[in-house]
Specification:
291 residues; eight-stranded mixed β-sheet; 7 helices; 32% strand
Length: 291
């Protein structure tokens, strides 16, 4: 199946999935978590289904909780030279989306091939995996997230990865408000990465809906691009936006102004037990190549 697959992991493995759940190895711990894409009802023959370390159990009233056996509060996994702190959180998350490794590899390759200083703006930057990948590749990065706890976690990941002294600006702010101020300040960036939520509320209670707000937001963000932008990456995880929608959006707002080329596809994680690929959302990538 044609997807951008994250195949470079050693500390993470998607062992099996089905019946709305996935069985994963995070370092030396095995977790079972819900996954809305894994709708097939295949037999659970992998022994990990009976020997997992923790499972996130959905409740009938919404939400859910971790059913833990013997799991530490945190542990670490590595991807190449990067080290991430894993912490099982409310609402099934661990602080890392392993399928995004395909995008980290893409960003690192773009930065390393540029042959010039590159400044990256990472919006909705979460726990900083993309920030650290870009910094490790030699870029200066502005990391923006509205949640102070996520930014603290990102700084922990930077320290664990030996990047605490890398040229990273850590900003706790609403992404749109921050971009508006950067435009007024005249600050410019050579590359943008964004992973906007499908739904959220702004600092003054403004409602964000991805389908309604993404186009004007990306249009706003193009105002901080330098005269020689390198790449622009949009990730869409929790919504039904097709990859072709991201292609059209990027071509409309970037290709007509800067040239270059746009490609979009699904991200996927290989499933060890079945040999299938679990789809994990869509990504659109505009690059200056072909100008």
């Amino acid at each position: 199946m044609d997807m951008w697959a994250s195949t470079g992991w050693k500390d993470y493995e998607l062992l099996d999935c089905g019946k709305g759940e996935k069985l994963e190895r995070w370092g030396s711990y095995t977790l079972v978590r819900p996954d809305p894409q894994a709708i097939w009802n295949t037999p659970r023959r992998h022994p990990g289904w009976k020997r997992y370390d923790a499972r996130y159990a959905r409740s009938h009233t919404g939400g859910g909780q971790w059913v833990k056996k013997d799991l530490p509060q945190r542990w670490q996994v590595r991807y190449g030279a990067l080290t991430f702190n894993i912490k099982p959180m409310n609402f099934k998350h661990t602080g890392l989306f392993p399928e995004q490794a395909a995008n980290w590899d893409f960003a690192m390759e773009q930065i390393q091939r540029a042959g010039r200083p590159v400044s990256v703006l990472n919006l909705f930057a979460y726990t900083g995996a993309a920030t650290l990948a870009c910094a490790a590749a030699g870029a200066s990065v502005c990391h923006v997230d509205a949640a102070r706890g996520m930014l603290s976690w990102a700084r922990e990941n930077a320290k664990s990865s030996g990047l605490e002294d890398a040229p990273i600006r850590w900003i706790v702010d609403d992404c749109a408000k921050f971009v508006e101020r950067e435009i007024r300040r005249g600050r410019r960036y050579d590359a943008v990465i964004m992973d906007p939520p499908s739904y959220g509320r702004g600092p003054s209670g403004e409602i964000w809906k991805l389908e309604e707000n993404l186009y004007p937001f990306v249009e706003l963000v193009t105002g901080v691009l330098s005269d020689r932008p390198l790449f622009f990456l949009i990730n869409s995880y929790t919504t039904g936006l097709a990859p072709s929608v991201l292609t059209y959006l990027l071509e409309t707002l970037l290709s007509r102004r800067y040239g270059g080329s746009t490609v979009s596809d699904e991200l996927g994680l290989p499933v060890t037990h079945s040999g299938l690929m679990l789809p994990c959302g869509a990504t659109g990538r505009w690059t200056a190549e072909g100008k």
